[in-house]
Design goal:
It is built from 5 helices and 9 strands. The chain is of the alpha+beta class.
């Protein structure tokens, strides 16, 4: 005997429910970050140059659970046929290892990050010092723990300096996540998954020039100004750490 078909609705996945629960916590005024930091405290930064022997210059960066290695090759003659130019070319490539995220086997090139890395660095490099040649920057994310792109940009800048590429200044980068009325600097991957919006600044601290600013989500003008001040202050302090790393190698 035939019965009427029963209707049903698929239940939410455990991961989705957990994310919603975390979001409710993040919107509270007095929640505590999982790593014990205050809202305006960045993760400890470990930086080292000379991470890849075969490259012209290289650097390794570890910010909490985010681990990145960047190799720089060149300047070398451009492989592409091109007319003579008074300025050099900068190529950037960002990729993830297959073990960089909790979901295995998803490592791949990240075209959006590659483009953003290029934009963040291009304004800081004195391209006129290597005409008709190319500098290649290869960034590899070994572990994705949040704020990946700012770490990549800062590490790539350090690798360029290690390669002896002429630059106006080092480029340091920091991001901020917005949760309701709360601003959280240098967010982890867990925090980024629940954020209402994000703001990232890349700048040349000694010249006080911004090379890139990206903004996602809905922000009030007051919150944008507050987030920018947080990022710029953190960029200044990060640049000091980057310079100390270069001085240690030089001495």
């Amino acid at each position: 005997m035939a019965t009427n078909p029963a209707t049903y609705s698929p239940s939410q996945s455990l991961e989705r429910r957990q994310q919603q629960q975390r979001r409710k916590i993040f919107l509270q005024a007095d929640w505590t970050r999982t790593d014990g930091r205050s809202f305006h405290q960045c993760r400890p930064a470990f930086l080292r140059t000379g991470a890849a022997n075969a490259a012209s210059g290289s650097a390794y960066a570890e910010f909490g659970g985010t681990k990145v290695i960047v190799s720089v090759f060149g300047p070398r003659e451009s492989k592409k046929a091109m007319m003579y130019s008074d300025t050099g070319r900068l190529n950037c490539n960002v990729s993830y290892t297959t073990f960089s995220t909790p979901t295995r086997g998803q490592g791949s090139d990240h075209k959006e990050y590659s483009s953003m890395l290029h934009k963040a660095l291009e304004g800081a490099i004195i391209l006129e010092t290597f005409p008709k040649t190319t500098v290649d920057v290869f960034a590899l994310v070994l572990e994705s723990g949040g704020s990946d792109l700012p770490v990549i940009i800062s590490c790539a800048s350090l690798a360029l300096a290690d390669a002896g590429i002429m630059m106006y200044d080092l480029v340091s980068s920091v991001s901020v996540s917005c949760f309701g009325n709360n601003l959280v600097i240098d967010p982890t991957a867990e925090e980024e998954a629940c954020q209402d919006g994000s703001l990232m600044i890349s700048c040349m601290p000694a010249r006080y020039e911004v090379t890139q600013l990206t903004l996602t989500g809905e922000w009030s003008t007051a919150k944008i100004n507050e987030a920018m001040e947080l990022c710029l202050d953190a960029c200044l302090k990060l640049a000091d750490i980057m310079r100390s790393c270069l001085k240690e190698i030089a001495s």
